[in-house]
Amino acid sequence: MTERIMMGLLLGGVAFGCGAILYPFMSALLWAAILTFATWPIYVRIRRNMGPVVGAVIMTVLTTLVVAVPLVIVVSSSIADLPGTFERLTTSLTSFHLPAPTWLSRIPLVGPDLANKWTQWATDLGHVEHMLLPYAGNIAQSMLSGLMLVASGLVHLGMALFIAFFFWLGGDALGATFAAVIRRIAGAYADRIIGIIGRTIRGTVYGILGTAIIQGVLTGLGFAMTGLPQPVLFGMITAGVAVLPIGAPLIWIPGALALMLTHHLWRGICLVAFGTFIISGVDHVIRPMFISRGAQLPYLLTVLGVLGGVWTFGALGIFLGPVLLGVGYTLTAEFAANVPGRAGKTARIEETFIES
Description:
The chain contains 16 helices and no strands. By secondary structure, the chain is mainly α. It folds into 2 domains: 25-169, no CATH class; 189-356.
């Protein structure tokens, strides 16, 4: 008995020490694990023809080109343009003027009154620069701090790609070890649990990333069709924020408002319609389609998973939140379905939540 206690304490101490050593790299390790697992089928196909080492190199290069290079371009260009942004911000604050749109006065009955109210509001708002101008330096400093934080994230991304190379290279051994641990813990349910976890992770990752990329492309297309500036840049920004369920509207709604307020009412209306039915509509079609290939995670849990994950884990929670909730929901449904007399009820409950 004493030997078992000592062995347990020894193993606990070793585990604690390993955790302390790896803690600074935990974020990069998790990113690398998610990236490797999600792209493993692609790596297997490349490895079949090129070999494991060359396959891992190709996957690392491709992932860097797809993920890291666009982020580096956006961040570096933003940092380089920061002085110009500060100058434009100062100029805008000191010469603020927003005339009423021409279409506003043409509204029957209430148009002239609305135009007068707009002019009065714009005149009052023009004095805001006197209050904001002293804080312009702080605003620029906050922008720089945010960009530096993103740059720090790029360093972690580089570390994750470096680790992912070795995960691709030794993925078979790592997977066998993970499966053996699950079998020791779960026994007869191990294979089923491993399959559920794998499908849920891939479905969640594909759903989030696939939806974000498509919404980014559509937003850039919408900006280009309506004549808004920098459609490629705003498309890339949309792809970044669209991992959140309400991310894309944060980009195209201000664009539509800018069109309406600069005497392009119908262009703004077209962008609103395009954003509502096409850009945001993708979120209700593509995301469930991808996720349903793994575990049919209800949309409510997807939203709660992303928001709660970001709140708890930061950027990594965008993936960890839905994955953890998806695995928990699927395992709960799996165990409930095995209770005698509950299988039909469980299936009906799942259908109700998923359809909602």
